[in-house]
UniProtKB/TrEMBL annotation:
Annotated stretches, region: Disordered: 41-65
A GO MF label: hydrolase activity
Comp. bias (Acidic residues): 45-57
Species: Oceanobacillus chungangensis
Lineage: superkingdom: Bacteria
UniProt keyword Acyltransferase, yes or no: no
UniProt keyword Hydrolase present: yes
Family matches, as InterPro entries: Sortase (IPR005754), Sortase_D (IPR053525), Sortase_D_1 (IPR041999), Sortase_dom-sf (IPR023365)
Protein name (Swiss-Prot/TrEMBL): Class D sortase
Keywords associated with the record: Hydrolase
């Protein structure tokens, strides 16, 4: 019985690993295409000007349906290009990065939250550092964010999804990365919008 369980466990883990590897490898990009340029730095003056401007026309004409592909997340440091799906149920997380439906869409003012499994799309997220770029491409344009904070929180910590005063992108995955089973913590990257096209 123990041998059968071991074979089953090894097989399911191998499948998960291969699925994650393929998702990660299929969307590789060239990191050289995404460089930090001097004009991509958010300044206090820019933040103050943002507060006094009226909201422009909405970026998105309609909200996506659950399971709909809404764009791609590019992580230049990892040379990865990952599909983003609206929703964070297993159906979405099994095929890419999930967009938390209770948050704004990428590029909009406030906190846009993306989640992914640590054994598939976000397997190398721990290699991303402060100052690295995250690029989101959607029907509304291309939005470049710069990582300003990395933290590890309890799995029940809801501060990850709280509103923000400016356009912010938050990435979340289970932590530790190499743990098999239920993870007690979450690895969080918080990035500010620095450029839109």
């Amino acid at each position: 019985m123990v041998i059968v369980f071991g074979l089953w466990f090894s097989g399911t883990n191998a499948y998960t690993y291969l699925k994650g590897y393929m998702l990660f490898k299929i969307g590789q990009v060239n990191a050289e295409d995404y460089k930090v340029e001097p004009d991509l730095k958010a300044t206090d003056e820019t933040e103050q000007n943002d507060e006094h401007q009226e909201d422009p026309d909405p970026l998105y004409s309609k909200r996506p349906e659950k399971g709909e592909n809404i764009g791609e997340l590019i992580i230049p440091k990892l040379e990865a290009k990952l599909p983003i799906y609206h929703g964070t149920d297993e159906e979405e997380l099994d095929i890419g990065v999930g967009h938390f439906a209770g948050s704004v869409l990428p590029g909009e003012k406030d906190n846009s939250v993306l989640s992914g499994h640590n054994d598939t799309v976000f397997r190398k997220l721990g290699e991303v550092e402060k100052g690295d770029l995250l690029v989101v491409q959607t029907s509304a344009g291309e939005f470049t964010y710069k990582v300003k904070q990395i933290r590890i929180v309890d799995k029940d910590d809801r501060t990850v999804i709280v509103p923000k005063p400016r356009a912010t992108l938050t990435l979340s995955t289970c932590y530790p990365f190499d743990l098999i089973g239920t993870s007690p913590e979450r690895y969080i990257l918080v990035a500010d919008l620095v450029s839109s096209k």
